[in-house]
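Entry 14. Ran structure prediction on the chain below.
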Amino acid sequence: MILKEKYTKYAKLNNLYGSIVFFANEKNEIKNINKLINSSQYNIFKKNLKNNTKKKEIFAFDIRHNQKIIVLNKKNNNESYVKFGAKLYQFFKNESLNKIHIFGDTVEASKIIRCLHELVHGMKLKSYSFNKYLTKKNSDILNLNIISKEKVDSKLIKNLSAIENGVNFTKDLVSEPGNVLHPDEYAKRLINLRKLGLKVTVYNTAKLKKMRCNALLGVGQGSSRGSYIVTMEWRGNKKQKKPLAFVGKGVCFDTGGISLKPARFMEDMTYDMAGSAVVVGLLKSLALRKARVNAVGVVGLVENMVSGNAQRPGDIVKSFSGKTIEVLNTDAEGRLVLADAITFTEKKFKPNFIIDLATLTGAIVVALGSEYAGLFSNNDKLSKQLHDAGEKTDEKVWRLPLHENYDKLMNSKNADMQNINYVGGAGSTTAAQFLQRFIINKTPWAHLDIAGMAFSKYAGSLNSSGATGYGVRLLDKFVEDNYE
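Output, structure tokens:
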């Protein structure tokens, strides 16, 4: 369903065709309702509101044979209007309603127009669908008319629209099948972002060989496709010396390599590039809303395939940092991609901090399910900023430990380290501990393991099933609150 909205200042109830929405307070009362409707309609309202004894959040009744009234009772005051808007969209969809009028001035809040903009924002986020490859597409349109005497906040709409664009672009990338969005195609799509004012630089296989990014290249050597590091730079603050850096794992398809994954659910491994997609979506959002920061996004793009040229278990590679890695399991490939990307980012851009994102371990799903991303960090301030942003956006993170004792599980007899912990336990922590070794100059760093958050078999509060776009709103809020 496609959502189209407009804002009008006034309308009489009798002149409106379609379903009409009012907001009720905690006492189940609607502000100024007697001024909006006539006496006979008012009696119908009172009678039906009394019937809502359970004070449902969304309560509907017919006022005429062709007109439905919808009363919103936002029971949880701590719940954002963004999340409430998503619930409202789902109600409209379930009821097959396509023409809606919202009497916004019945909202009892200090900033009514902000609440309304956030409500629509939530509806738009929830309305996303990936139907690119359906020959018969759903062409239903939801026409939304928001009636309010308050002036529209054009700046807020622009910012929210930028976030929607970033989130949806992330979802589009994650949803693409592996035969379409392979590393070569992915790199081309990122070049197109230059039109938004981003400086995009592509380091192809030949350049990466000269740079000795052998950890990343080892992952992709079994594929007929190229391997890449792509950087996207946004310059929105001339006074800011050090950029904010975001790094993403972009394994466009992960067979596991010679350490082959089970066939069941392998088709889901198209989303093993979700960490990179979040970084791309974030940089697009920052560019669209002209964020007053300098930020850089770095993504490592590879395809982990099985072939006569694929990396073997037991191979030893020398990373961009100069440290050597014994590859005991070719399915622990994401950390190899990130190892080179992280050190490259730190050395080239000398950033304020580095935040990396990856669908890195199944262990994080065992630990946190699909409610929290795992957060690992060498910096308490950075961790708190991410936690607080997660609470505000309902894209939550949970900090898990790092400790030098875990290094023992990743040490190798044949190289500086091995890429997997065969002793057992602490799978997500040892993966993060591995990544931390590639922060060479003590740059503040955080790792977000989003394996349980990037893709969902069932619909979430702000998304339909499939790609969730998790992380774009979290990091945009993190940037806005702390660095603009």
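The chain has a mean pLDDT of 94. Will compare against last week's run tomorrow.
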